[in-house]
Amino acid sequence: MAYMLIDRAEITVRGGKGGAGIPKKLKGPDGGRGGRGGDVYVKASSNINLLNQFSEKDLFTAGGGEMGARNNKTGKNGEDLEILLPIGTSLYDKHTNELIHEITKIDEQFLLCRGGKGGWAGKIAGPGERGEEKKLVLSLRLIADFGLIGLPNAGKSSLLNELTSAQAKVANYAFTTLEPNLGVFEGKCIADIPGLIEGASSGRGLGVAFLKHIEKVGVLLHCISCETKDAVHDYETVRKELLDFKPELADKSEIIILTKTDMADLKQVKELIRMLKKKNKKVVATSINDWDSIENLKRYLH
User: Fold this and answer.
1) Based on the domain organization, do 165 and 18 belong to the same domain?
2) What is the reported pTM?
């Protein structure tokens, strides 16, 4: 299955308000203090599609504490709120751009906002404190085992569909893929990163919005089409954008996948492989219309 990914969201999160205290009487039983407001926690999940939940709702508040009761009874505490976020999400303060927390482990839990204290009981009872409030920017960087990269129309989405039974949109024109797609192959996540072009690191084409997703990908699957007029130039164009965006990206493990081999004769394919092996010894030729080549690629990815 493939997912259309939302990788950025802005939300407001509030701890619950403390409950009001009850005034003491001159005669009779004393009143109790209010219950404390619920806390807000963030918990990590492997579901990378979770930022979609913020497309229709952007305010999240924990439960409020209940009012105190007679006979010194403290009001019931408010219910805590747990927000699930995908691994790879960074939480930034919207006003200062300061990094608050980065989610890196499954089931990790983080206290984000504390609830307010309950109001005191006394001659004049307290109203209960407001909970903490944070305005956040959530930014997701995919944590995937493999990342399909390359120029537009290099066959990345078609390959994702073939390897993972995904249903990413494909067509014979540039920028068919406008958002990253994900699929699962043998329990490993493959991310289809939208096509990069020359100048992507400075904002051209789809710009840096998708280059960031390459940062936490384990192995780069660099797709180059047999239909290209200059395979080496295509390869170097994408490598330059990686280097310009963040130099350490160029140090990631990489496999070159020569795609659409059915669109060239055997002599041309052999020559393209020879040229590309000068750049990277790991070159695999494949076509989605050649079952044997797809099976060979699957074995290679194992």
Assistant:
1) no
2) 0.62
